[in-house]
Write a structure and sequence with these properties.
Elements (H helix, E strand, L loop, with lengths): L1 H32 L6 H12 L3 H11 L1 H11 L6 H19 L3 H33 L4 H60 L4
Helix pairs in contact: 1-6, 1-7, 2-3, 2-7, 3-4, 4-5, 4-7, 5-7, 6-7
């Protein structure tokens, strides 16, 4: 409680920011952990169904798979009757949509990692100004009084770094997870387009 009083409103704000950032991290962590990647089985079913011309079966397989990959494949497979170009456009649009959904909330962690040290520095500067004002008003300066005032001021800098470092680690961890999922989506996009190209090229020429 004493340290909270020393830090003033800046330390209170850092505490609230920490709680919010922690909530965002755990919510995003659990959400990304539930995402189904590794869609080899789904792609085998899609491959076989598309080659047989059974698009409905492929769509049902994507629905059953669910998750990001399932939604992504649904967007592309629904456009198969309109040609490869339409499928590619639908997959690119779906990729952007999934990227936005997966990365939701990561900006909070990034901003926290950048703002927390600045808030800590602001608290330090304002605390030192207050300390020197007290020294000036007393008309004398003692090493003990000066050291105590500066120590209290530097506490907010330490608090800012304590908040920023975990936030930065959390951001890069989740961003890496998002990149892994998006990389798989891009890989599956190339696979589906390749399957469709092979089917088209394998059709008898008119």
């Amino acid at each position: 409680m004493l340290q909270l009083q020393q830090g003033g409103w800046i330390l209170v704000f850092l505490l609230l920011l920490t709680l919010y950032a922690a909530y965002v991290f755990f919510e995003r962590y659990l959400a990304l952990r539930r995402e189904k990647i590794g869609g080899e089985r789904l792609m085998r079913e899609v491959d076989a169904s598309v080659r047989r011309g059974q698009i409905d079966v492929a769509l049902e397989a994507a629905r059953a798979h669910g998750g990001t990959l399932g939604r992504f494949m649904l967007a592309g497979l629904a456009r198969v009757p309109f040609g490869v170009t339409a499928v590619d456009a639908a997959l690119k649009a779906a990729l952007l949509e999934e990227e936005s959904r997966l990365a939701r909330g990561l900006g909070v962690l990034s901003v926290t990692a950048q703002v927390a040290p600045l808030l800590g520095l602001l608290g330090t500067v304002s605390g030192m100004i207050r300390a020197f004002n007290v020294l000036a008003s007393q008309g004398q300066t003692t090493a003990k009084l000066l050291a105590g005032g500066i120590g209290e001021a530097l506490f907010t800098t330490a608090a800012g770094l304590i908040v920023a470092i975990p936030a930065l680690i959390a951001y890069h961890y989740l961003a890496g997870r998002v990149d892994d999922i998006l990389s798989e989506l891009e890989q599956r996009r190339e696979e589906l387009l390749g399957i469709l190209a092979e089917v088209r090229n394998g059709e008898p020429q008119a």
